[in-house]
Amino acid sequence: MANVYATNKANDLHGHANSKSPSDAISVDLSARRTGMSFQRTRMSADRTLMSVIRTSLSLIGFGFTIFQFFEKLRDAGTLTHAGAPRSFGLALVLLGICMLVIGIIYHTQFMLELRRTREEMVADGIIHGESRYPVSYTLVTAVILLLIGLFAVASMVFDIGPFQDGTGS
Fold first, then answer.
1. Which of 35, 97, 109, 142 could cross-link to 57 by cystine, CB 3.0-4.6 Å?
2. How far apart are CA 164 and CA 71, in angstroms?
3. Please, are residues 26 and 52 in contact by the beta-carbon 8 Å criterion?
4. Is residue 30 part of a domain?
5. Structural domain harbouring 148
6. 4 belongs to a structural domain
7. How many whole angstroms separate alpha carbon 7 and alpha carbon 63?
8. CA 17, CA 9: separation in Å to the nearest integer?
């Protein structure tokens, strides 16, 4: 497809239509800008979806860890003699939160790579300008950090290690 707005003499230095351009060149330029902005909106929507996954997995990890620690302290105090089932339930919630986070990270990464590839193709074909940055997703960075914290919580629960233990080894 020919780059309509880049061939007109009434365009600015970047090849974009301006007030002196013919109306069809202005229309094409505005359409390209709207399409470019729609990529940014789609990227932000994907970040919001990952934020939802983070919120849910954080709730599962936090609640599971709390249940595990609560029944662990009751068992250590001698109040409960068998706290295996509630502790296993707490561990299961933490593992469910971690699995959900891993799936969310994988989905987000695949979606963003495909979106970037499509955007690059459209820029190469001259359909959109592609001048705006396509930054790294800080939501993805946060999700990976939360995943590491969740894995640390599981290690703490299963192997009785970490700062959340009383040091008695019981």
1. 97
2. 14
3. no
4. yes
5. 16-159
6. no
7. 61
8. 9
Q: How many domains does the chain have?
A: 1
Selection from 32, 75, 51 nearest residue 166 by Cα: 75
Please check whether residue 170 lies inside any domain of the structure: no
DSSP 5: G
pLDDT at 165 over 90: no
The pLDDT score that the predictor gives to residue 1 is: 44
Q: How far apart are the first and last CA of the chain?
A: 71
Is residue 160 helix, strand or coil? coil
Which residue intervals of 77-133 are DSSP H helices? 84-124
The confidence band for 93, taking pLDDT boundaries of 50, 70 and 90, is very high
SS3 3: coil
Q: Which two tokens stand for residue 108?
A: 């987000």
Residue 62 is assigned to a structural domain of this protein: yes
